[in-house]
């Protein structure tokens, strides 16, 4: 007799091993993309914050801290560095004028676009090593992974 939704321990162990393999592979790909990008002068936390700001602007520093994730002081220092580099600026929060929000500058938008283009080109090189069926499978998995990470 099977119970709906119940997984046998061997299935759970197999899924955990596959999940670990996926995690290690994704980490190696991200490390490769970070090493190959032209924006190596930017700290990884700054890069993540910049990408988040691009997606969510205007965004408060507290939200950046929660979503990167990092501490509030680290988010403040990170935004200050991005601001000093001319990539972002602070302006009054449109919802609460007493607070500030962070938005991209034109240079920040150009940097995000160039970094995204370069990362996509590097990833395409990696995917070109696969046969057509495996490449299509990985690309379709991207949509599924996006759904998994939407609320993170």
TrEMBL record:
Transmembrane segments: none annotated. Pfam families: MarR. InterPro entries: HTH-type_Bedaq_tolerance, HTH_MarR-typ, WH-like_DNA-bd_sf, WH_DNA-bd_sf. This is MarR family transcriptional regulator. Residues 19-152 form the HTH marR-type domain. PROSITE patterns: HTH_MARR_2 (PS50995). It comes from the Bacteria. Signal peptide: none annotated. The lineage of its organism: Bacteria, Bacillati, Actinomycetota, Actinomycetes, Propionibacteriales. It comes from Kribbella karoonensis.
């Amino acid at each position: 007799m099977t119970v709906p939704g119940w997984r046998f321990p061997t299935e759970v162990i197999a899924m955990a091993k596959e999940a670990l393999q996926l995690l290690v592979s994704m980490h190696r790909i991200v490390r490769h993309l970070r090493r190959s990008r032209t924006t190596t002068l930017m700290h990884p936390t700054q890069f993540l914050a910049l990408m988040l700001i691009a997606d969510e602007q205007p965004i408060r520093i507290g939200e950046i801290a929660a979503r990167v994730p990092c501490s509030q002081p680290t988010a403040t220092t990170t935004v200050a560095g991005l601001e000093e580099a001319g990539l972002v600026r602070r302006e009054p929060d449109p919802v609460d004028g007493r607070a500030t929000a962070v938005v991209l500058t034109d240079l920040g938008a150009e940097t995000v676009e160039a970094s995204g283009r370069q990362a996509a080109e590097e990833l395409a090189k990696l995917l070109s090593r696969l046969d057509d069926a495996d490449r299509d499978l990985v690309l379709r998995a991207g949509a599924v992974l996006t759904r998994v990470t939407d609320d993170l």
